[in-house]
Design brief:
The chain folds into three domains: 105 residues, FAD/NAD(P)-binding domain, CATH 3.50.50; 261 residues, 3-Layer(bba) Sandwich (FAD/NAD(P)-binding domain), CATH 3.50.50; 141 residues, 2-Layer Sandwich (D-Amino Acid Oxidase, Chain A, domain 2). Helix content is 40%, strand content 19%. The protein is globular, with a radius of gyration of 28 Å. Pfam families: FAD_binding_3 (PF01494).
Amino acid sequence: MTPKDRIFKVMSEEKVFQTWYSGRTALLDDACHKLNPSGAHGAVTAMHDALALANLVYALPKNSAAAIEEAFSEYYIERIGPVTASFNASKPLSMVTGRGIIGKIALFLRKYTPLFIWDTVIHLNNNGNGKPRVLIVGAGLGGLMLGALLEKAGISYAIFERTAEVKPLGIEEEFIAMGRPTPKITVNREGGPPLYVVSSLPQVKYTGYYSYIVSRPLFYDLLMKQVPVHKIHFNKRVLTISDKEDQVKIQTSDNCVYEGDILVGADGAYSAVRQRMYETLKQEGRLPKSDQEDLPFHSTCLVGQTEPIDLKDFPEFQEPLCSFYNTMGKDSPHTWVVFATAQKTLCYMVIHHLDKASSKAAEEHRFRESENSQWGPHAAQAMVEETRHFPLAIGTKKMTMGDLYDLTPKDRISKVMLEEKVFQTWHSGRIALLGDGAITAMHDSIALANLIYALAPNATTAEIEKSLEEYRNERIVPVTESYNTSKSFSKIMERGIVGMISLCLFKNIPLWLLNMIYKRQILSRPQCGFLEEVPLKGSVKALRSPSTEKARAVYKKRMAAVSI
């Protein structure tokens, strides 16, 4: 049944050469390593070599022998580790198919060896410069921001994301181009005229920047451009973490083990890294009682974004400076918010204010005791049907939320919990945590990147712990203030006597006091000490950032040493 030209006899050679390049010449595939084809290793590693080499050739700054040789060195350093690991993994597997006593012993061992023995430990390479190797769990805004900053700093890192993809720096111009200035919030009661308008224009005077609305998928794409593709690993759900013997390791659900010097949990409100770290601290009696409590939420929220639409029916969104339009339900515990993006899509949130605080654990217990789930695949659609009739206070004044739902692809509507909590434990040993709020998470990333950059070569566990404590000390105050401000403003949307009093106080707040609040909100503006300093554009200076100052001092010292 097989054509004769499709039958071959080959030799199954196996060897990893140590010399992969010289001058302007580099080797690929069988030229620098030959792996057993029966293990399906050779072809895959050859293609991985090609990808790595293509990335580095593409990124060459100039056509000089020195630049090319440096790129080839990076190619070798990146690929020699995984190729050798693949070679070592294929050798015992090939022994299983052998004959005689060796094959029988190998087969017996393979059948009865625990799974964890076969795990591949993947070591991040630090290029021999003594800089820490950083494992980042979570490819959200905070994780991507930290990766982008470490990339700029020349620090070895890898990002591990449990999902198959992330839903859809020198990037200021791109960010502003994709954003829409939205310096106002217009609040009204259902069926009534605007109650008040909050303007953030004073912030423009204080900082030199507007408040921008940016589509989250577009912002993700912008950050993703700053991180090389091969440094983000998808479908990597973290099962266990280990912080021992001057190294930290993570084991993922595909039975891979990754080793580094610092582990950063950037994986959201229900962080697997935080849960594992807290379990260990609790067993040791070192976890504060407040950090052992469930993450609470007082609201659930339906969020969505329409397809690009013709804004002729929404004159409010055709103005250069737009507003958030916030409507409080008259007879229902709901608030709905609508705003526009620069891409002519409408974004919305429908918030359900709960009578009392709940938690994810409580909701899951309630689900187990009943036949209905608040968080199943139909939860968002159920809330869509419940709120379709909510009127819009914009456009023709005859439209409802249902009109926006009908313009929205189903995969762009989600139901989420609006959790709020500031944990007190941010690090332990070589493990650190990032926040989950978009802006505060990115500020956390900046402070942490500064302190990682400033670490001495081959930093000890004690030195890393000291830097992580400095990170917490710098960020805990602005994060707590942001949390308290958010709670205060959310009370305005509450129902009952608390909401009425809060609304009355806010409507009559003196302008000087409101401006004081605005100033406090923009005081924390950390910068990367190892990048060019962003000049002050507004009238209010940012608070001193110890991490920025520390990184900038180290950067200047290193640059001075290079110039000698």
